[in-house]
Write a structure and sequence with these properties.
This protein is α+β, with helices and mostly antiparallel strands. A three-stranded mixed beta sheet has the order 1-2-3. It has five helices and three strands, in the order αβααββαα. β2 and β3 form a beta hairpin.
Amino acid sequence: MTIMTIMTIQERSTNGEGWTVAEAKAKFSEVLDRAQSEGPQTITRNGRTTAVVVAAEEWERKTKRKGNLAEFFAGSPLRGSRVRIKRLSTRLRKAAL
């Protein structure tokens, strides 16, 4: 790899343009390190974003459940609004199973 290629890789990844698949494969350890220290790292294929590498801690934080369904409904702004839902008076249709 030439010095110019290394500079291009570093400029691309620090400017937020991400990594190509080939660069990410060649520098996978660096991609992981930067995901932990700098935030999500974008990987592109043919100029289109195909994947984003994020630190495990960030992934866990983003996907952590924030409560249950009962708490969701209890905290709804519609609670106590006396909204009435009118049911249809027609018979239910039969579904073929």
